[in-house]
């Protein structure tokens, strides 16, 4: 069961336990506001618009994973994710925003918030300067943290105000993606570093990348709570 | 009409006319052997196996184009190509080889020929060290040259021995991809360099990249004609 | 005379004029505190430690410029900068910090502040995803802004508390580097885009990169003024 | 003693022993012609001109090692190598060629031979797509193979026709570089993979990269022996 955070593979479970900001991320006031419906609509829409910009660069980072993969199955797993992000998840944002009166042009023209930019550039640079593993470790907190949040909120929500959002990330499709990404990471580690990968300094370095990206997720929620901090 | 080489956009037409080896590539003895059916089967299968390895790295290069794109439509165009290469074109190779008694494991284990490696690494490095335009200029000769070859052979073939291969590249699907890639290149140039892009030194540099990749295609056909030159 | 901001070449002069935050950067309260000596020592040392971490990643970005250069003179200019950063400028930080009782190990172990990280990863990612010009445009505000600040403070300082720092950036060596980098940028633009480069959409894109890096410089000074915002 | 190939560190000694083409590279007919003075002058000058082009791209690859390094000492080691290549080794080529009547402009205008290009693009792409270790494994055969060749020829030469060349690579400066690079590789492996790095699949992957670059060195000597194969 993913809400325990142990359902997405061995490596992620270890990295998650070692990331100081994991709870600050997955139990952030923004998340609790989604759970009990108290999150102001303006904050949610501000978040969605920034997340739309985020997903563009996050898709670029997953595309870099295709380039950096070693095997065809690794390439195919990363390609499926790019496809899902560009054609499904970004479309969902367009649809929700449209229902709120924000049209696609406005959404596409959203100025990128500094905290948003800091996150995706960190991930992309980790991937360019490191290898496939560095990139996956930096990508993982977003993908799998949302899976954990979705699964928990589906069980604990006291309001259905944000039921659509919760349902997306708690749903079978998204949970399946999370398990696939967890398996991709475990497989990639074993393929390169052998079965005892968790004992190597390299694993601690990857854990630090995961922890850093987790911290940047906290900043993303902070930004979501402060619509007025957006650039003009 | 693409067999004249002028059907895939303005930039490619100019680059094609300036590439010294364009005819050596598109009218290579290997190509003429496909046209009149005299190409030995062993050469064709050797080529297919190398092309399978090629397509893996070529897909990685198209994935790099997603990373290096500036706009969502550019990203989507590159994503569609990666998807087509990994899920359709590579599958076609697997199917043809299977019919010839070469199973998927054997195909996947094909040792990469030096001329094959030289080509894809040139393209990838051009993309990494340059920008989106450098990458597209290096990717273009393969995509669009095959379109031109397919269209010509469909009109001029005197044998149907290699009719399936010819039909693939002469077909509406592939010709549509060629037109899309040509339009992507023209659009990317205008977006960055303005309408008079062809007058800039940058355009001549891109033309040199296109010409270099064209020369590497000649080497690929040469390799195809010499099955015994393959590494053990 | 560089304090007018027109002494470092044509392109930089245009980009500087178009960057909304240029004055916010070069006339920041931190800078004014260096000028009149009112900057608290703790803030200065906090800044120096973060700048030491910054220079490591900034050197990596200049090394990427060597990789992305087209000509030997471009490579040599970038190499000289890497050499100067690693062997001269970082050494200066070690020396000043040592005099303040911060030893080299402590300095090297400085935790990277989020605003610091955001800046260097933006520059590196611009370089990886773009080409040599994108990288230079993102590198320029730091190099040339410090030159402009140094030259102005040398003329306007009302205290010699921070005279060493001012003297470093106002000095002939550093001003020479600034002129060289300005000439490198003008030459690289002309080499690729021709003499009318400033009329092209590409130039506006590069100007946007310069403006973005300038904004990130403002955040760096903000961080310098808030020693307590540093991670533990 | 380096002529036994065991003087440049633990990892390189293992990779060298596992590279099928190591002797084909270090005892190539070109090398034996340097040893006994029978190498035709035209072949030597053809080689030098191609090597000049090679060193430009090889310097770019070492600069990429600065970008991909994790620690300051790793960055400094790579920077020293870039500096040495650009300012010392390339200058040596200019000098020898000048003595043979080939001026610097002619040298700089040397068309890049396909086998030359294949090698450097392989190395650069290995570095971009992999991490610091992948890059070092691809860089090592050139640096350390020349050290081994120089040391052996200094002991075994029967002619002083190519004594300058031999002396360069047998000399203390170059042998010191080889030991430094060997130590850099061993240190980088231990830093990332721990003391038992040689037991990991990753080490076998790096060994394969080393072997591939070794094979590309054989092609480089082949090219040197065939001046007429140069592009017009």
- In terms of quaternary structure, the protein is homotetramer
Report the CATH topology name of chain A.
Answer: Heme Oxygenase, Chain A
Per CATH, the class of chain A reads Mainly Alpha
First and last CA, distance of chain A:
42 Å
Instruction: Note the run of SSEs of chain A as H and E.
Output: HHHHHHHHHHH
Mean pLDDT of chain A: 93
Helix content of chain A: over 70%
**CATH architecture annotation name of chain A:** Up-down Bundle
What's the helix count of chain A?
A: 11
Global geometry of chain A: globular
Low-confidence stretches of chain A: none
Tell me about the biggest sheet of chain A? none
The most extensive interface between chains reads: A-B, 19 and 19 residues
Please state roughly what percent of the residues of chain A sit in beta strands, choosing from under 5%, 5-15%, 15-25%, 25-35%, 35-45% or over 45%.
under 5%
Query: Number of domains in the coordinates of chain A?
Result: 1
The structural class of chain A is mainly alpha
Question: Quick one: how many beta strands of chain A?
Answer: 0
Fourth CATH level, the homologous superfamily of chain A:
Heme oxygenase-like
Describe this structure in words.
Four copies of one chain form a homotetramer. Chain A has 232 residues and is an all-alpha fold. Helices cover 77% and strands 0% of the residues of chain A. Chain A has one domain (10-225): Heme oxygenase-like (Heme Oxygenase, Chain A). Chain A has eleven helices and no strands. In chain A, helix 4 (41-68) runs antiparallel to helix 8. Chain A starts with 9 loop residues before the first helix and ends in a 7-residue tail after the last helix. The mean pLDDT of chain A is 93. Chains in contact: A-B, A-C, A-D, B-C, B-D, C-D. The A-B interface holds A 56, 59-61, 63-64, 66-67, 69, 72, 75-76, 78-79, 82-83, 86, 108, 124 and B 56, 59-61, 63-64, 66-67, 69, 72, 75-76, 78-79, 82-83, 86, 108, 124.
């Amino acid at each position: 069961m993913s809400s325990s955070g142990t359902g997405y593979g061995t490596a992620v479970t270890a990295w998650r336990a070692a990331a100081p900001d994991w709870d600050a991320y997955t139990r952030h006031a923004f998340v609790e506001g989604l759970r009990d419906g108290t999150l102001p609509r303006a904050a949610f829409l501000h978040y969605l618009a920034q997340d739309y910009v985020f997903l563009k660069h996050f898709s670029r980072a997953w595309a870099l994973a295709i380039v950096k993969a070693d095997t065809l199955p690794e390439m195919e797993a990363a390609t499926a994710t790019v496809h899902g992000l560009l054609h499904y998840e970004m479309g969902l944002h367009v649809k929700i925003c449209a229902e709120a009166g924000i049209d696609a042009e406005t959404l596409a023209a959203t100025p990128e918030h500094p905290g948003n930019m800091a996150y995706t550039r960190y991930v992309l640079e980790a991937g360019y300067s490191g290898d496939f593993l560095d990139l996956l470790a930096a990508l993982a907190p977003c993908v799998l943290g949302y899976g954990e949040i979705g699964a928990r909120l589906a069980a604990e929500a006291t309001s259905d105000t944000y039921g659509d959002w919760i349902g997306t990330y708690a749903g079978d499709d998204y949970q399946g993606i999370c398990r696939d990404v967890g398996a991709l990471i475990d497989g990639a580690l074993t393929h390169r570093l052998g079965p005892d990968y968790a004992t190597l300094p390299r694993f601690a370095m990857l854990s630090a990348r995961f922890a850093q990206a987790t911290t940047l997720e906290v900043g993303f929620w902070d930004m979501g709570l402060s619509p007025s901090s957006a650039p003009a």
